[in-house]
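Reading a protein record of the kind used here takes only a little practice. The record below shows the convention in full.

——
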Amino acid sequence: MENRYKVVDEAQWKRALHCQIFRNSIEPSYCVTFELEITNFLKKIRAANLSFTLSLIYIVTKCANDIEEFRYRFLNGQIVLFDKIDTAFTYLDKDTELFKVVNVEMQDTLEYYVSVATEKAANQKDYFTGPLGNDVFQFSPMPWVSYTHISHTNSGKKDNATPLFDWGKYFDRDGKKVLPFSVQVHHSFVDGIHIGKLVNSLQTSLNRF
């Protein structure tokens, strides 16, 4: 069941022209890679014996949900704004080295989200449980490589506006832990200023964790 949403009145929407211009682009999505400092976050996660990946998914989802532009989607030809967005992440089967995609509803606290997500990922037998809904953020971490750039497969569906978040292997720099992080978004809804808001919110949240 999808989360609640409202249909946008494009005639009254300040972003209508910008949305239409980018919607008609050959490639309407773009990806930005940047670095996050995770020293304090990593220390606290380890002390609490929480999953690094699932904890970061929670924080990213919380920060992105707070920025309206990350909750817009195309739905049945219309533009809609969801009240909230949940999560879908890849989870590696170490025996087969194949991943499954796990859908988990966002929760009120990090600890509860990690608990629910851990259980669901462990118990899910199928690699894929069906097409993803519009009301998720997708996560596909790649913790084996400290990359400086990443690109993604393209379904060819121009109205696929689901943001995709990735990160690589964190590393040491000047006594701090640094994480390469990427976000892919649809330009009809998300501009550089909104990426900047997300970066600032993420770094503040990680520092205060």
Remarks:
- The CA atoms of residues 96 and 127 lie 11 Å apart.
- The chain has a mean pLDDT of 96.
- The chain has five helices and ten strands.
